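#dry-run=false #mode=assembly
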Amino acid sequence: MTTAASPHTMNTYGRLPVAMSHGQGLRVWDTDGKCYLDALAGIAVNTLGHGHPKLVPALQDQVAKMIHCCNYYHVPDQEKLAAKLVEKSGLTNVFFCSTGLEANEAAIKLARKFGHDKGIESPVIVVYEKSFHGRSIATLSATGNEKIQKGFGPLVEGFLRVPLNDIDALKKATEGNPNVVAVFFETIQGEGGINPTRWDYLRQVRELCDQRDWLMMIDEVQCGMGRTGKWFAHQWAGIVPDVMPLAKGLGSGVPIGAVVAGPKAANIFQVGNHGGTFGGNPLAMRAGVETIRIMEKDGLLENAAKVGAHLRAGLEKALGGLPGVKEIRGQGLMVGVELNMPCGVLTNRCAEAGLLISVTADSVVRLVPPLIMTEAEANEVLAILVPQIQTFLAEQA
Ligand SMILES: Cc1ncc(COP(=O)(O)O)c(C=O)c1O
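#status=ok
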């Protein structure tokens, strides 16, 4: 159940009847003083949870020094953060922006200019069924969800859609098409229902991109930044993309986006080709630098892998094989429980029971908690979530 629209903000969100006040670690409190366990992290954003004792003083220091100055000048922390992202990804150069859709817009522009630089006048980017890349006109055109596109036509042209994990379909759809310049997908589709791209498929696409001189562009906005137990989810397959948009968890809550590019794409943009007022501002850059520093120091990749496995094992034990439970899947702290019926009501019921989650693709309970979650906190999540799902399934039976 959601509340009525508020009088002065646009009616773009179906909100729960709750207003959040503050948080600490895995817990947040609403304005009535009720406490919730946060297994959503502001949709895979609050990497370090809330009020992190090392992040907060760093951000306070930065706010006092400088929040914004614009890209007419060098921003020292841009270089620092770019160097870290280059080190972690094996890529070479970074463009900074402020959101996931902006990172994807930049990737789309890179792919198009990559084509134009080769003399391709109408470049085509391969995109996927059930994908989500954002809600600007170009990124919603790339997105594989008609509900998100409805009412906003005409869509941007130059996208060719294929099903995920089917290399023959990709080969067939692109056969004899000289205009294809890039393949663009998420390693694990988030909004589409926690749908992993198979590792062998990632390797096959890498090979095809090399053979055909296409850019391999992997949207790691939701599944990246340590969430799966590697810095970037595609690293489980041992491949390196050419272009990788990031956002969400990179700033642990401070708006930030980035496109990381390898040698094939790093020099496509020249001065004047792309930019933005807020991108790479000192506050966002400090948030990124400190987030990665704390993740390294506190071993949060290992934690995400370990606690994620614990959480999934707990879900399997309690729910695996139950009638109505289709599949429990994911990697690290990106976990989905797919039911065989729409279950959006669980978002509200779990919140009432003191747990923040979301339901995505109508029937997939999504858990994307802060990467600082402990096994004890995972047990607390299970203690609330499992009975909620069991009760829901019993009602539907
Ligand atoms: C994979 C992916 N790409 C892009 C976006 C868009 O990011 P933003 O909401 O910051 O524009 C999202 C948001 O959910 C996402 O999950």
